[in-house]
Amino acid sequence: MNETVSLYAAHAKIQPRAVSGRFARWRWAAVWLTQLAFYGLPWLSWNGRPALLFELASRRFYIFDLVLYPQDFIYLTALLLLAAYALFFFTALAGRLWCGYACPQTVYTEIFMWVERRIEGDRPQRIKLDAAPWSLNKLARKGGKHAAWIVIALWTGFTFAGYFTPIRDLAHATLAFELGSWQTFWVLFYAFATWGNAGFMREQVCKYMCPYARFQSAMFDRDTLIISYDNQRGEPRGARQRKGDPAAAAQGECVDCGLCVQVCPTGIDIRKGLQYECIGCAACIDACDAMMTKIGQPTGLVRYDTLNGMEQGLTPAQRLRRVLRPRVLVYGGVLLAITTAVAASLALRAPFKVDVVRDRSTLARIVDDGWVENVYRLQVMNATEAAQRYAVRADGLDGLALAAPPALELGPAEARWLVVALRVPPRTADAAGSGAHPIVFHVSAPGRELAEKSTFVVPR
User: What is the 3-state secondary structure of 365-399?
Assistant: First the structure.
């Protein structure tokens, strides 16, 4: 007899129970803080434009008073390094703080679950509603929930697009049904991703799609602060009378109520030890503390602690002394060094940029009175939001002169190509000989001068 054996377990929908407590308040504080920043910054005016604006079409990125060009790509690299080492540093200290409190997947899942609880009820009501046959009440609740989710998702997609197109222009175009094809695509794409990830995939994103869960253990050690279950206090677990004495019943303090599992957004049992699915949200701590208070037992059966702290019974002071260990010092030192370097670079950053390119359409040539002329194209980029006037000169060869001294004035955050012709007299060309000779362009604005190297070619 043939028997089919499935290698994959059917996915069971997780319905987390609502929980309140100090860590729940911290999570909601992170939700408010991150979303006020995300939804608010595109509407914040700064120098007559949004405070944060990434104009891909004009290749200019505005970050408050900073104006960045593609040539400033090094700052994006530095930002990614800062994010990576900050993640490593805080993970080595206290586990998955990012995942539990500030990750967009966690934040939007929290928002969507709040909407779900308001419309469909808490965990028991949602389970009952899912199991019930379709009716007008079920259709209204399910439809209302998805309608609210779609509104939030669309507003999120609209805000995301507002970082790349001035959001007020985007709003006017939307109301006038004149939204461009690419803008429409990104609004709908980001809205669909938000709706799908926070409404349906939820814990599956954290468990199967996010790579961080897979390599987090490389940053943990026995002194990393993680969410832990105190086996010595809790075991053997079992139900008992509300005011019963666990010692008299030869039981641990855990009453096996299962609340720590019911409130977990990834559906794990923290009593089985640290698992890669744990996102460190501390909902189980709030649930367990509430139950311990209710039955008259000390809180902290599930708590933030270290493996060494749990096994050796370390005091908070002893755990604190173990914070400054090698990996934390290395991560912290690298993070501090990168932060200092980026801050210094931004403080010393020139208010304009210059690129020099030889004009390939015009070769070195001999002009009037035997002078040798080379033609160059200078790209000058104003990195400020005020009009600037620039002067150009060059040196490196005796008698090197500009054919016509250019006067260049750029508007705020404007970039322009400037054609510049350099000439040397016949005596200099004869003395230098044929070939390429190094020269230096000097472009100056009030208070700052930049030098760019190039070559001057004397023909045979």
Answer: EECHHHCEEEEEEEEEEECCCCCEEEEEEEECCCC
Domain ranges of the chain: 10-349, 352-458
Cβ 205 vs Cβ 105: under 8 Å: yes
Residue 125 is inside which H or E element, if any?
helix 123-131
Query: Of the candidates 300, 252, 302, which has an alpha carbon nearest to the alpha carbon of residue 278?
Result: 302
**Which one, of 139, 119, 307, 324, lies nearest residue 223 by Cα?**
307
- Three-class secondary structure of residue 16 per DSSP: coil
Give the global pTM: 0.83
CB 283 within 8 A of CB 24: yes
Q: Evaluate whether 206 touches 98 at the Cβ level (below 8 Å).
A: no
Give the model's pLDDT for residue 340. Answer: 94
- Choose among 194, 119, 112, 209: nearest CA to 160: 194
Short-list 335, 331, 326, 380, CA closest to 356 = 380
- The answer to whether the CB of 154 falls within 8 A of the CB of 192 is no
Cis status of the peptide bond prior to 236, with omega within 30 of 0: yes
The CATH code that applies to domain 352-458 is 2.60.40.10
- The distance of Cα 143 from the centroid of its chain, to the nearest Å, equals 32
pLDDT at 9: 54
SS3 of 233, please?
Answer: helix
CB 392, CB 422: distance < 8 Å: no
Check residue 163 and give its pLDDT.
94
The DSSP H or E segment spanning 438 is strand 435-445
Q: List, for the chain, all residue ranges whose pLDDT scores fall below the cut of 50.
A: none
Structure tokens at 259: 């609340």
Residue 48 CA: distances (Å) to CA of 51, 189, 378, 406: 9, 29, 29, 30
- Predicted pLDDT at 237: 85
CB 443 within 8 A of CB 354: yes
Q: How far apart are the first and last CA of the chain?
A: 91
Give pLDDT tens digits for 182-212. 999 999 999 999 999 999 999 889 888 888 8
Instruction: Return phi, psi of residue 432, to 5°.
Output: -75, -30
pLDDT at 452: 92
Residue 247's φ and ψ, nearest 5 degrees, are: -65, -40
Average pLDDT for the chain: 88
